[in-house]
Amino acid sequence: MSFTANRLLLFGATGDLAQRMLLPSLCALHADKLVAEDLQIIGTARQDFDDAGFRNFARAALEKFLPADRRGSMGTFLNRLHYQPLDANDLAGFTALSAKVGPIDDGLAIFLSTAPSLFEATIAGLSAGGLTGDKVRIGLEKPLGTDFQSSCEINDAVARAFPEDRTFRIDHYLGKETVQNLLALRFANILFEPLWNAAHIDHVQITVAETVGLEGRVGFYDGAGALRDMVQNHMLQLLALVAMEPPANYNATAIRDEKVKVLRALRLIDPSETVTGQYRAGAIIGQPVPGYDEELGKPSDTETFVAIKAHLDNWRWKGVPFYLRTGKRMPQRKTEIVVQFRHVPHSIFAGKGARSVPNRLVIGIQPEENITLSLMAKVPGLDRDGIRLREVPLDIAMADAFAGPNKRIAYERLLLDLIEGDQTLFVRRDEVEAQWDWIDGIRASWTEHDLKPKPYAAGTWGPSASIALTERDGVHWHE
Question: What is the pLDDT of residue 370?
Fold first, then answer.
């Protein structure tokens, strides 16, 4: 059933995600008149606010995290906000929440960000409070479990109240413009798609590097680690978009059908094809930072870095390695995809002393959104001593190419799609479970072979073993 909700219920409305992303995104959508005038936003969390207290809280968050040039309509936006305190374990509290939300005949969208242990209680409370009808859809923020089994349990609990077509699993990377541009780059340019296969591509690299450490996520992160925190969701979604077959058209079913085929084609990883690490004390941008165990306050075997050589057992990608790398306390913050093409089969310039290197496509996702294609060009000159070739980058900085539109927070797109009911940029249940199935296999092999994280200094690109992972194939990480 297609409908645009006129009520939005935000769980975790006083948390870090709400302050940094959700409230600024909603205020920006309000300022640009992209949400209906009658949309009401109801926040809920354990804090004992009334409406006025929550509006003051939201104002402070917007002044801190929303750029000044986008605050023009902040006052009228705050009038949309309402608040109801709630303990998710208290079933009776959902009756008061339902009364605060008011009539949902015209549609309710729920954004649920909660600990995995609270999913079942929250869904049961929503059902008891009458907040799960045919005109209600729910958005689920990660973490959706800690392994395949717990993910299935959460999905089963949600499915008892919300069918798949009203369940929106959020991966905020899919809301980033450059991630969406992957589809345009591949499927709107005949230049690329005929070459997008094992015959022409040597390997693919996907890097998600962070300079931060635990940053207040001690309890969650030490129970998760880099593999479950980053690879299971963001990185596998990026891999799926890079590797998917062309969908028949641009809609939720067609695109997600192709992504899940990629995820199911992932080969079980051999332990020799993974490297894990944990940062020790070092320096980030010249500033000393403590090691992971110092931040945590105790020894731990949790990995803060992981590198993987992945394989897809299908026709298009047979024999093409996908190198995945993510870590905390890296030298710089960046998320990028590198598509390395093969050498030309025969260089006509070799006899003239020229050396060519293969073309490379670099798709930068954050902090800067850009696309760079490296091409070979002749160095100007009379060539009396031979021809010289040089790699020349063609750079497309998205901020320059599209200077007019505001740069959007990823959650702006995702919240608007949740309100309007477009599932294209959300993750389907079979995708999530295929991702967990592969991740669980990796973790099981680590346990079987008693693999422990190798130390690396903060401010470096991880353990030296991660360099060996690629260099034994004659490949260098793009840095």
Answer: 86
- How far, in Å, are 15, 173, 244, 471 from residue 235 at the CA level? 25, 9, 14, 22
User: Active-site residues: which are they?
Assistant: 234
| 141 belongs to a structural domain | yes
Taking residues 410-439, what's their average pLDDT?
94
Please state the domain count of the chain: 2
pLDDT digits (tens, 9 = 90+) for 351-393: 666 677 888 999 998 888 888 998 877 777 766 676 777 777 8
Residue-wise pLDDT tens digits, 87-96: 999 999 999 9
Task: Kindly state the tokens that stand for 117.
Answer: 């242990």
Residue 369 belongs to a domain: no
Place of tokens 């346990």: 447
Which uninterrupted H or E stretch holds 232? none
Query: Which amino acid is residue 278, in one-letter code?
Result: Q
Of 141, 169, 197, at which residue does a domain stop?
169
Q: Is residue 404 part of a domain?
A: no
Terminal Cα-to-Cα distance of the chain (whole angstroms): 47
Residue 466 counted as domain residue: yes
CA nearest neighbour of 278 among 230, 216, 210, 226:
226
Q: What domain range is 160 assigned to? A: 7-169
Q: In what order do the strands lie in the sheet with 370-378?
A: 389-397, 370-378, 360-366, 334-341, 201-209, 322-327, 305-310, 274-280, 454-457
